[in-house]
Amino acid sequence: MKNRYIDLIEQTFEFPKEEFNVIDNELYWNNIPLMDIIKQYGTPVRLTYLPRISEQIQKARINFNVAMAKTEYNGEYNYCYCTKSSYFSFILEEVLENDVHIETSSAFDINIIEELYDTGHLKKSNYIICNGFKRPQYIENIVNLIHEGFENTIPVLDNKFELDKYIEAGLKRKTKIGIRIATEEEPQFQFYTSRLGIRYNQIIPYYQEKIQNNPLFELKMLHFFINTGIKDTAHYWNELLKAVNLYCELKKICPELNALNIGGGFPIKNSLEFNYDYEYMAEEIISQIKNTCMQHGVPEPDIFSEFGTYTVGESGAILFSIVNQKQQNDRELWNMIDGSFMTTLPDTWAISQRYILLAVNNWDVEYQRVHLGGLTCDSQDFYNAEAHSNAVFLPKFNDKEQYIGFFNIGAYQESLSGYGGLQHCLLPAPKHVIIDLDENGEYYTKLFAKEQSYKSMLKILGF
Hints:
Layout: H1 5-12, E1 20-23, E2 26-29, E3 32-33, H2 34-41, E4 45-49, H3 51-71, E5 77-82, H4 89-96, E6 101-104, H5 107-118, E7 128-130, H6 136-147, E8 153-157, H7 162-168, E9 175-180, H8 200-211, E10 217-223, H9 234-253, E11 259-261, H10 278-296, E12 302-307, H11 309-312, E13 316-327, E14 333-337, H12 341-344, H13 346-350, E15 356-359, E16 367-373, E17 382-383, E18 392-395, E19 402-407, H14 413-416, E20 431-437, E21 443-449, H15 454-460
Parallel strand pairs: 4-20, 5-6, 5-12, 6-7, 7-8, 8-9, 9-10, 10-11, 11-12, 14-16
Antiparallel strand pairs: 1-2, 2-3, 4-13, 13-14, 13-19, 15-19, 16-17, 16-18, 20-21
Helix pairs in contact: 3-10, 5-6, 9-10
């Protein structure tokens, strides 16, 4: 029986993968030798591989455009990026190089939009889809954006009292708006109807009462989003068809309505056995929308999608060292990392999210079952489950340095952990390195942020 770590991975999964391969018992990620990164920057270190962002955008765009060509669909496809997934300037600049649009969720998002325009990365013709429950500052910033000439800014109404807030904030220009549908959640969810949006049966009466004869607004978009994402399930298809049917009924009395926003939810790889047919899902979505519109005798809408995790998730990784091993009883081995799961990968703690975990070196060493422990004093600061079993398997701990990597962590983790702020047990945020390709296709690295210093923490604390 082969019992090396490389044997375990190759026997359990189809390996190597598109983004992973092993040379001389060391892991390469997107053809980048990770041990070279560790030798240069040490651990813990967070990585962002920018080219992956553009690859993801282009894949989705191709899938939807091919689906539209196959079905002879008459609308256009528009890709939007959800800024809340990662707000960093280098992320947004890479995203906007692909001629896509932006979805916002809070007041400060609008300040980022203005900054991107000032630096030449965004045009006033870009679509700015403004989602969320809007407090006064968010409303005011949206109105300012519209008055500044961002012609395709579309506030998406989250409730029936939002529309009046724009008038109260001094809106003078005729404005395109959208309405978000309050979709039904999956049966096992903790509540029945999403807290976001307006209920199905209230949308048409609301349009007739508040928008139809209002010279300041024109309804351009119906917004649909399922919290659990785009999945090939009866629940997803049922909710999509309800939304398209509502679009068709609304289109009959609202000729200016021409866009259906299907929200986000394309998944990313969270294990080496991940399998998802993006091409099939895009074609099925487009087919169902087209067929329903044909049955109603209305033109097909332009399609908008809002992909956040899908855009940036697979661009991120974090590397740790195993600093020591503790035998806590006759069965439990704990490998202690030089960081914290709670502070650097908060989703592993908050929602039991699992990521691709692989050893970076020592692939020729015999493997063993372990638990992974973080450095905080919290009992929940651990990671102990992988896709192939309820355990983690890594090379046996010995006198060799052992490094591990968590991959596809590029969405939400920095903002959820409070980037640049206070971390649990005052553990410093790790250094952050950006990886890109030059004109010859060779990778190069740039240090975006050093490891957080004690001085920055003491300043926040008032010392």
